[in-house]
Amino acid sequence: MVGVDAYAVLLTIIANCIVLALEEHLPKDDKTLLAQNLEKTEPYFLLIFCVEASLKILALGFVLHPRSYLRNIWNIMDFVVVVTGFITLSVRKDIGIDLRTLRAIRVLRPLKLVSGIPSLQVVLKSIIKAMAPLLQIGLLVLFAIVIFAIIGLEFYSGALHKTCYSLANLDQIVTEGEMATPCFQTENRSQAPSGAYVCDPEISTCLEKWDGPNYGITSFDNIGFAMLTVFQCITQEGWTAILYWTNDAMGGKFNFLYFVPLIVLGSFFMLNLVLGVLSGEFAKERERVENRQEFLKLRRQQQLERELNGYVEWICKAEEVILAEERTTDEEKAHIMEARRRAAAKRKKLKHLGKSKSTDTEDEDNEAEDDDGVSRGATYLKNKVKKQGACANFWKAEKTLRFGIRRTVKQQWFYWFVIILVFLNTVCVAAEHYDQPPFLTKFLYYAEFIFLCLFISEMLIKMYALGPRIYFESSFNRFDCVVISGSIFEVVWSAFKSGSFGLSVLRALRLLRIFKVTKYWSSLRNLVISLLSSMRSIISLLFLLFLFILIFALLGMQLFGGSFNFPEETPLANFNTFSIALLTVFQILTGEDWNEVMYQGIASQGGTKSGMIYSLYFIILVIFGNYTLLNVFLAIAVDNLANAQELTAAEEEQEEEDKEKQQAELEKELVALQNNTDGPPTVEICPPSPGGDGKSNKQDTKSDKDIENQEDDMGGPKPMLPYSSMFILSPTNPIRRAAHWVVNLRYFDFFIMIVITLSSIALASEDPVVEDSEWNEVLNYFDYAFTGVFAIEMILKVIDLGVIFHPGSYLRDFWNILDSVVVICAAVSFCFDMMGSTTGQNLSTIKSLRVLRVLRPLKTIKRVPKLKSVFDCVVNSLKNVFNILIVYILFQFIFAVIAVQLFNGKFFYCTDESVDVEDECQGEFFVFSTYERPPEVKPRKWLAQSFHYDNVMAAMLTLFAVQTGEGWPQVLQNSMAATYENHGPKPQVAVEMSIFYIVYFIVFPFFFVNIFVALIIITFQEQGEAELQDGELDKNQKSCIDFAIQAKPLERYMPKDRVSFKYKIWRMVVSTPFEYFIMLLIVLNTLLLMMKFHNQSQLYRETLHYMNTIFTSFFTIECLLKIMAFGVRNFFKDPWNIFDFITVIGSIIDALVVEFGENFINVGFLRLFRAARLIKLLRQGYTIRILLWTFVQSFKALPYVCLLIAMLFFIYAIIGMQVFGNMKFDPDTDLNRHNNFQSFFASLLLLFRPGERTALCSILILATSGSCPPVTFPCLSPRPCVDTFQVLVYLKAS
Question: In the UniProt record, which is one GO cellular component term (predicted)?
Answer without folding.
Answer: synapse
